[in-house]
């Protein structure tokens, strides 16, 4: 399985579209590996705009036909936007996890423990 090289990843299977030093809010989502493991996602609970999230901590929930899973923040900061389309139609997350299925945007204040695509691929192969 390959993962977009321009993204950074977490061991909890989230991705972030962030280049260190960038000041713009970044998009956050779950990886195709996570979406495939969860099965058909039927419900999404995301942090509200204005919520402060901490890197590595639970900030939401994904419910699939198989289970309910915690959603972890890959970076710390303030949530500045949520993807209402993914909340209304959670299948977007399964069908396009790196595009239309993004979950929320964060104004980054803290980022630790992020993995490159190659390191994340190694993790998923283990």
Brief digest:
The chain is an alpha+beta fold and 126 residues long. It contains 4 helices and 9 strands, in the order βββαβββββααβα. The strands form 2 sheets. The chain has a 6-stranded antiparallel beta sheet. The chain has a 3-stranded antiparallel beta sheet with strand order 4-6-7.
SSE string, helix = H, strand = E? EEEHEEEEEHHEH
**Count of DSSP E strands?**
9
Head-to-tail CA distance between termini? 12 Å
Shape: globular
Number of helices: 4
Largest sheet: 6 strands, antiparallel
Task: Estimate percent helicity.
Answer: 10-25%
**Percentage of β-strand residues:** 25-35%
| Biggest sheet, spatial arrangement of strands | 1-2-3-9-8-5
Low-confidence stretches: none
Mean pLDDT: 95
Secondary structure category:
alpha+beta
The rounded Rg comes to: 13 Å
Textual characterization of the structure:
- A six-stranded antiparallel sheet has the order 1-2-3-9-8-5.
- Strand 6 (58-64) and strand 7 (68-72) form a beta hairpin.
- Helices cover 21% and strands 34% of the residues.
- It contains four helices and nine strands; from the N terminus they run E-E-E-H-E-E-E-E-E-H-H-E-H.
- The chain has 126 residues and is of the alpha+beta class.
- The relative contact order is 0.27.
């Amino acid at each position: 399985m390959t993962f977009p090289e321009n993204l950074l990843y977490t061991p909890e299977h989230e991705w972030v579209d962030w280049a260190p030093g960038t000041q713009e809010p970044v998009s956050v989502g779950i990886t195709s590996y996570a979406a495939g493991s969860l099965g058909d996602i039927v419900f999404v609970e995301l942090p509200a705009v204005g919520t402060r999230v901490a890197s590595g901590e639970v900030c939401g929930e994904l419910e699939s036909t198989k289970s309910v899973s915690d959603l972890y923040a890959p970076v710390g900061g303030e949530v500045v936007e949520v993807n209402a389309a993914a909340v209304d139609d959670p299948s977007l997350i399964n069908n396009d996890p790196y595009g239309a299925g993004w979950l929320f945007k964060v104004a980054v204040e803290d980022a630790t423990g992020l993995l490159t695509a190659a390191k994340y691929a190694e993790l998923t192969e283990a």
